[in-house]
Amino acid sequence: MPRRFQHYTEEDVRVRPNRRGTRPRSKQRPDHADAAPGLVTAVDRGRYHVLTDAGTPVVAIKARELGRGAIVVGDRVDLVGDVSGAEGSLARVVRVHERSTVLRRSAEDSDSHQRVIVANADQLVIVTALADPEPRPRMVDRCLVAAFDAGMDALLFLTKADLAPPEPFLQRYAGLDVPAVTTRLAGDQVHGLEQVHERLTGRVSVLVGHSGVGKSTLVNALVPDAERATGGVNVVTGRGRHTSSSAVALALPEGGWIIDTPGVRSFGLAHVEADRFLAAFTDLAEVAQACPRGCTHADDAPDCALDEWAATAGPVGRARLESFRRLLASRLAGDDGPHPPCTEVLL
Fold first, then answer.
1. 192-205 confidence digits (pLDDT tens)
2. How far apart, in whole angstroms, are the C-alpha atoms of residue 127 and residue 227?
3. Is 36-96 CATH 3.40.50.150?
4. In DSSP terms, which residues pair with 37 in a beta bridge?
5. Mutual angle of helices 215-222 and 193-200, in 10-degree steps
């Protein structure tokens, strides 16, 4: 049979409305004047645990307009939506306040990608064990550089003084204005916490250190209801086992905050320039202004003004220069590899 063709006219054509253009677009965003401020205490798979200034713990997600910028523990944020804290409720982070400090690290010194660890902390507590596992001084040096670069105070926290004396290790840092506290275990009790409370109360302190050095044990002693998991040291590798998988901020009973972080095995400083932490040694920085242009201030730097200054600076001045140059060498060298025994004072 011959095929019949349907004849259409304009009246048979139905045009769908352009729905994409029906809503007027505007670059104006709501100012969220009624947003509730709070502190980010933990981050878990895209969910942000926030303690509001009213004392309510809230779970929130990030608003789309904030883009891909990271929100980290310690950030001050503003929330909208359900901020009641009721089970199953979900608020929205619409604003991140300007940060006073940012602690960063890279995976390696050659890695340009920087990872923000915490925000708005004013003290970096470098936790290291005096034994089991053996201390890694170069790791401590690198953390000191990161603290200086971030504009944070540094505190050396030495654990397990019941296994080894702290004096040989502390001798390395005699030329630095860095305070130190020590604790020791006696059974299940941590001794030496009085001096720790004095250094932490009223401050926002972030704890950094290798796995197995006793960070979680310390946190549980300072915050009894923290319930941070603790672990031992691998008898084969001599390294600690990871027990904390994410950073968490905990309120101290006497006031202030401590931020416990997962154990790290490297602390890259690709983002730190030598002049940044030279400024932490104010006396050396003033002398270095007389150095030739492009001076590296290292041991082999020709005509470095620091060498001439150290010749008449006395034992304390020379110790400070030695400490600075050790930190500089730590910035330029990798963190892996053999580490010298801490009983020697290495320059």
1. 899 999 999 999 99
2. 19
3. no
4. 78
5. 80
Domain 102-260 maps to which CATH number in 3.90.950.20, 3.40.50.300, 2.60.40.10, 3.30.160.390?
3.40.50.300
Predicted local confidence at residue 108, as pLDDT: 59
Lookup result for tokens 């050659």: 110
pLDDT digits (tens, 9 = 90+) for 24-78: 555 666 778 899 999 999 999 889 999 999 999 999 999 988 888 789 999 999 9
Is residue 158 pLDDT above 60, yes or no? yes
What's the DSSP call for residue 286? H
What mean pLDDT, rounded, does the chain reach?
81
Average pLDDT over residues 213-231: 76
Cβ neighbours of residue 65 closer than 8 Å, sequence gap 6 or more: 29, 94
CB 50 within 8 A of CB 43: no
Residue with tokens 């602690």: 103
**Integer Cα distance of 270 and 312 in angstroms:** 34
Cα–Cα distance for residue pair 122/204, rounded to 1 Å: 6
In the prediction, which pLDDT does 199 show?
A: 95
* Nearest CA among 185, 214, 218, 186 for reference residue 200: 218
